[in-house]
């Protein structure tokens, strides 16, 4: 890698020398040159707006290799974000206007810039006269391209070129990985470090620093955290949930086994209009069974009890007995019960099944007499859910999340919150109330949301684990990567029409009333009470928007929502959004809007390489402390090629979290993303916790989150770090963070060593007060590709003590104050 970089650098310098020599032949430095702007036709402009300069319009020199200075943000990732035939013009005020075609249908993309480097938010007009202009052909780097030519000052080209160089340099830093450590740190000796706490400089930090972000991605909800064992229990799977899957419809996961019976789907007179489909089982002669496959099967545990329930009716009024069986792959009955359906009207039927064995099974519903039966909401739940809640959560998974001790939970997304197009925006009201009346919806990750895990269950879970709820609602615009859905208003670039914004804002205000309103005196407080929670949930935080593009459409809608919440609920902490990256137009524009409106907190997102985290540990040190707006780092994770989670990614996160604790005065909340992933059903990697029907498999990164969550403090104790090795590369790979938890009085020392050698650390705690002579130490260590578990022991503590940090390790020492 390093060799490749050197080669590229030499190539680049040679190229520059050649081009500079070309300039010198003509004059020392030209005042102006021709600038050719184009988007590569080979990739439909997905690599963005590119530039080349020339003195004679014959010989063109590319500015940056294949480097796009502006990329189209319209529609889905991948094939849809095109920049066709861009046209660059300069206004009489000197501003550059770039206009391009989006596709053959949706009109144009447009952005403006002063320097061709920083571009304003994109607009997508249907028509524009700015697109008109002559396109010429030019050969750039051996390829013919079509574009437009402007005469520009040489300084402009120099600026573009410097920007490219800087980016190349940054990318080389961000590409640093431990695999190169052998070469990078050849001959490195163990490092000596002293960490001297400076209690006189102590500062308060957020008590909510470490939380969790739950999104229904990777089958996190249905088939995951939501303990329901029947897949497609409501027969509402819809072909539109999953493009290109012929089997994805109301019968998904269901099948008829046996003969002389029919299984069809009907919608006449359903239980509820929100749940229109149900099964019709027409039995000519008993023997056949309606079978549900579950989510990769139905895992039973011996001796455990399972609540079976269903809505059913016998339209011909003929009473029918049904056997309900859980059957394994060999046909062995592992648990069973029976029911009689007699009513002509929809009625709930319930029974309990006790598992006779531990087995992977499927469900069979076997009518014992001929006739027609209608079935819906066929459900099977383990009784042993998290905290024993009905309609509850899978105990082991919920406990694994609870063990992080997250101080808040953000839900329900992510992209799921703002949805794929306006019609897919997550509507909280569809997710509360009786299960049969909830409105299922397509999950934009390519499957189905039953909404059985809805807002009530999310709030209940937060309460059960002592976490603040942080619901996130769309800011009146759908996901920035929404498909165009055939019309301009359907994608991200459309927003909820102004005529509907009043109702949308009312829904958001209703949510606050639902969560906090009086159970008797308020309409929505009553709804909450009827659902079984008379006490308010005490909602304090509400997220508006999820990494949206900060367009004019967004700004207008966000401002309306923000002002409405502020007026009715001034105490509510609104969390705004600043785009999907840690820099660029949305980040800059999002922050400008937050500063202008005085938004209390904004949600930053960035998924980055280990090198990025390593070289940006000072990201928040540089924050303007006088700003009113605090930070919620709502989504982050270390991504390496192959998207694996191992100790390399985990230690990078541990290192960065040390900097977040240090900046816990401005960074109030953080959450790794995504949280859960069902094996064989992932749309995104890495995730914090993998699972299947029987096992929970936390990643190494999970243990880092848990160690930070369980060892959080509300007071940061700065320290002076001195290493005997003064090399900057070494210093950046060592971090320490010392916090005090005032509730227990404990002082927690966290030490991260991302070096391939040991760091012998002397910790000087003078001034923090008397402490217990021994302390719990937890160490996570291994080779960069390993996925180790943390190991605990006890060590002796004194005012000054030595602690040897193994190569590539994270060490947490929890020191209790003396009695
Ligand atoms: O965490 C996965 C996705 O990443 C989220 O849905 C979205 O907000 C982000 O792009």
TrEMBL record:
Signal sequence annotation: 1-21
InterPro entries in alphabetical order: Alpha-L-AF_C, ASD1_cat, BT_3657-like_N, Galactose-bd-like_sf, GH, Glyco_hydro_b, Glycosyl_Hydrolase_51
GO terms assigned for molecular function: alpha-L-arabinofuranosidase activity
GO BP terms: L-arabinose metabolic process
First-tier enzyme category under EC: hydrolase
Enzyme Commission number(s) from the entry: 3.2.1.55
Keywords tagged on the record: Hydrolase, Signal
Recorded catalytic activity of this chain's protein: Hydrolysis of terminal non-reducing alpha-L-arabinofuranoside residues in alpha-L-arabinosides
Domain Alpha-L-arabinofuranosidase C-terminal: 634-809
Pfam families: Alpha-L-AF_C, ASD1_dom, BT_3657-like_N
Family according to the record: Belongs to the glycosyl hydrolase 51 family.
The protein's name in its UniProt record: non-reducing end alpha-L-arabinofuranosidase
């Amino acid at each position: 890698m390093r060799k490749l970089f050197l080669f590229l650098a030499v190539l680049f310098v040679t190229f520059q020398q050649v081009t500079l020599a070309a300039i010198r032949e003509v004059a020392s430095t030209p005042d102006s040159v021709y600038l050719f702007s184009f988007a590569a036709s080979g990739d439909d402009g997905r690599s963005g707006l590119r530039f080349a300069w020339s003195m004679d319009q014959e010989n063109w020199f590319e500015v940056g290799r294949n480097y796009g200075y502006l990329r189209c943000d319209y529609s889905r990732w991948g094939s849809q974000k095109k920049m066709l035939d861009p046209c660059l013009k300069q206004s009489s005020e000197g501003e550059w206007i770039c206009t391009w075609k989006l596709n053959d249908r949706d009109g144009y993309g447009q952005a403006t810039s002063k320097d061709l480097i920083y571009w304003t938010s994109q607009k997508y007009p249907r028509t524009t006269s700015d697109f008109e202009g002559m396109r010429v052909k030019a050969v750039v780097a051996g390829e013919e391209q079509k574009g437009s030519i402007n005469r520009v000052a040489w300084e402009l080209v120099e600026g573009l070129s410097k920007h490219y160089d800087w980016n190349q340099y940054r990318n080389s830093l961000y590409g640093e990985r431990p695999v190169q450590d052998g070469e990078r740190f050849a001959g490195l000796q163990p490092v000596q470090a002293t960490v001297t706490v400076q209690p006189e400089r102590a500062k308060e930090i957020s008590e909510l620093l470490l939380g969790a972000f739950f999104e229904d991605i990777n089958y996190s909800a249905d088939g995951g955290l939501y303990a329901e064992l029947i897949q497609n229990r409501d027969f509402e799977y819809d072909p539109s949930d999953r493009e290109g899957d012929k089997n994805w419809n109301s019968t998904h996961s269901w099948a008829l086994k046996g003969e002389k019976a029919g299984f069809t789907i009907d919608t006449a007179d359903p239980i509820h209009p929100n749940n229109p489909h149900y099964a019709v089982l027409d039995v000519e002669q008993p023997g056949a069974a309606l079978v549900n496959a579950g989510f990769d099967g139905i895992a039973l545990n011996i001796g455990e009890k399972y609540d079976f329930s269903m809505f059913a009716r016998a339209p011909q009024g003929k009473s029918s007995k049904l056997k309900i069986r859980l059957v394994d792959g060999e046909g062995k009955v592992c648990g069973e019960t029976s029911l009689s359906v007699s009513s002509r009207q929809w009625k709930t039927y319930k029974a309990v099944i006790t598992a006779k064995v531990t087995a992977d099974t499927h469900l069979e519903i076997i009518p014992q007499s001929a006739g027609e039966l209608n079935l819906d909401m066929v459900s099977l739940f383990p009784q042993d859910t998290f905290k024993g809640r009905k309609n509850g959560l899978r105990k082991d998974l919920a406990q694994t999340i609870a063990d992080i001790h997250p101080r808040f939970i953000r839900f329900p997304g992510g992209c799921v919150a703002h949805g794929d197009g306006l019609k897919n925006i997550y509507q909280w009201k569809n997710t509360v109330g009786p299960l049969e009346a909830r409105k299922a919806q397509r999950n934009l990750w390519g499957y189905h949301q039953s909404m059985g895990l809805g807002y009530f269950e999310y709030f209940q879970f937060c309460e059960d684990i002592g976490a603040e709820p942080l619901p996130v609602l769309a800011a009146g615009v759908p996901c920035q990567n929404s498909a165009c859905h055939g019309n301009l208003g359907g994608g991200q670039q459309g927003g909820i029409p102004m005529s509907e914004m009043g109702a949308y804002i009312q829904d958001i205000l209703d949510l606050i009333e639902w969560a906090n309103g009086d159970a008797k005196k308020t309409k929505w407080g009553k709804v909450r009470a009827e659902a079984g929670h008379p006490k308010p949930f005490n909602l304090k935080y509400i997220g508006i928007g999820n990494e949206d593009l900060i367009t004019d459409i967004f700004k207008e809608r966000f401002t309306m929502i923000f002002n409405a919440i502020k007026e009715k609920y001034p105490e509510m902490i609104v969390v705004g959004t600043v785009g999907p990256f840690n820099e660029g137009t949305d980040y800059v524009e999002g922050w400008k809007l937050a500063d202008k409106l005085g938004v209390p907190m904004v949600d930053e997102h960035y998924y980055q390489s280990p090198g990025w985290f390593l070289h940006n540990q000072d990201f928040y040190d540089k924050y303007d402390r006088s700003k009113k707006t605090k930070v919620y780092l709502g989504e982050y994770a270390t991504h390496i090629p192959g998207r694996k989670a191992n100790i390399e990614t985990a230690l990078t996160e541990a290192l960065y979290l040390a900097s977040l604790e240090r900046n816990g005065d401005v960074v109030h909340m953080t959450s790794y993303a995504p949280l859960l992933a069902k094996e064989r059903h992932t749309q995104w990697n890495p995730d914090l916790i993998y699972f299947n029907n029987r096992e929970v498999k936390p990643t190494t990164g999970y243990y880092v989150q848990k160690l930070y969550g369980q060892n959080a403090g509300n007071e940061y104790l700065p320290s002076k770090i001195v290493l005997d090795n003064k090399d900057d590369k070494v210093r950046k790979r060592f971090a320490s963070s010392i916090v005090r938890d005032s509730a227990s009085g404990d002082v927690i020392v966290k030490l991260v060593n991302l070096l391939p050698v040991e760091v012998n650390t002397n910790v000087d705690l003078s001034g923090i007060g008397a402490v217990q002579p021994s302390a719990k130490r937890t160490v996570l260590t291994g080779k960069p590709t390993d996925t180790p578990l943390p190991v605990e022991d006890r060590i002796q503590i004194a005012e000054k003590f030595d602690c040897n940090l193994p190569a590539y390790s994270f060490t947490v020492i929890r020191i209790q104050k003396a009695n």
